[in-house]
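$ ./design --mode recover --in tokens.txt
reading tokens...
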């Protein structure tokens, strides 16, 4: 007999992307930033390491909250930092849902939402998107009406498209909250300004952001959420006391204060993104116009998995992703299986290496 919780026994567990630790890979598989973080980050870490490691950090990370509040134009009480944005997603699940509550999320999107619901043992549901990645609000209405916690990544992953504010507002559950996961928000044409939090439904929307992508700090583990102070207060009750360590708090504060650095990396990535999209289209791929730091593409005839493996044999790592039941079954998708390739925007030399290998293979 198993001693584990039944929900743990049944769990598949989230499978993160491959993280080869040896050098020599062109790594375009987990949406990291190819450029280094601001030099101010390393300075802040060094300074903190010299004299702040023997004492506990501020459990609320207030100095970071003040810096983020200034940059974002909100009050510090609206900010809650976490050990990576993923931790805030976990905290939100624990704050809002019991086992009879429904957690829902678009499908295909970030697979972690489903894993978090399975761990918590709540009811959960996939909300089906149209083949062009738009929302079928009418089809999803019955599930939305029962939803307590809705996760929506915007821009979405793996597709990279972004839904407009009107669509997002129409999704806010009547009896629940919407978590707007803006992990890729900084890469969009019109970067988010938190306007939805100031509107009518603002107290039922929680925005989450990460330092792993636009701020080049995936190795650090830091993210934060922006929400109504009542929500922040409830989330604080649920989190570990010292969920953010002194080094990451200091580093994140330095990073968010250096907007110029982040924006200049963003501009390089957006330029490379345009180039990559054009090149993939010329190679015969269908490419979803991306608002993120990656591109989703499918090929009308070639096996995506074989392309991924052929690239991997050349030490070029991209992400092969498959979503059973992701589309309506038709001639092109006999079992309703949606699959494709997600390519992170690297440096220009990395993207060139990828493109020349891919054109050889094809
Ligand atoms: C990368 C990512 C996150 C996680 O960010 P971390 O801060 O690294 O935990 C959350 N949501 C989406 C959609 C992501 O792609």
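writing sequence...
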């Amino acid at each position: 007999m198993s001693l584990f919780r039944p929900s743990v026994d049944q769990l598949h567990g989230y499978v993160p992307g491959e993280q080869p630790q040896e050098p020599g890979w062109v790594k375009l598989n987990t949406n990291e930033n190819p450029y280094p973080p601001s030099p101010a980050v390393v300075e802040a870490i060094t300074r903190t390491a010299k004299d702040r490691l023997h004492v506990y950090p501020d459990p609320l990370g207030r100095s970071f909250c003040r810096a983020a509040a200034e940059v974002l134009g909100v009050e510090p009480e609206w900010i809650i930092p976490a050990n990576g944005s993923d931790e805030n997603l976990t905290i939100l699940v624990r704050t809002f849902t019991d086992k009879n509550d429904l957690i829902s999320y678009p499908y295909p999107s970030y697979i972690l939402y489903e894993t978090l619901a399975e761990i918590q043992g709540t009811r959960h549901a996939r909300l089906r998107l149209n083949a062009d990645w738009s929302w079928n609000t009418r089809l999803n209405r019955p599930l939305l009406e029962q939803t307590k916690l809705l996760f929506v990544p915007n821009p979405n992953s793996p597709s990279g498209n972004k839904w407009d504010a009107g669509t997002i507002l129409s999704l806010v559950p009547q009896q629940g909250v919407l978590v707007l996961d803006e992990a890729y928000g900084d890469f969009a044409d019109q970067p988010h300004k938190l306007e939805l939090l100031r509107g009518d439904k603002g107290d039922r929307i929680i925005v989450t952001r990460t330092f792993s992508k636009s701020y080049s700090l995936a190795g650090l583990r830091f993210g934060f959420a922006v929400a109504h102070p009542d929500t922040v207060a409830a989330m604080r009750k649920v989190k570990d006391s010292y969920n953010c360590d002194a080094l990451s708090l200091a580093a994140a504060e330095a990073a968010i204060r250096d907007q110029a650095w982040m924006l200049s990396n963003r501009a390089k990535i957006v330029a490379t993104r345009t180039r990559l999209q054009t090149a993939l289209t010329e190679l015969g791929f269908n490419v979803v116009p991306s608002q993120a730091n990656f591109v989703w593409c499918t090929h009308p005839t070639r096996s995506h998995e074989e392309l991924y493996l052929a690239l991997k044999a050349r030490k070029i790592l991209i992400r092969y992703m498959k979503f059973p039941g992701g589309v309506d079954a038709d001639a092109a998708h006999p079992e309703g299986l949606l699959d494709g390739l997600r390519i992170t925007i690297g440096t220009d030399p990395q993207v060139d290496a990828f493109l020349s290998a891919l054109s050889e293979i094809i």
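exit 0
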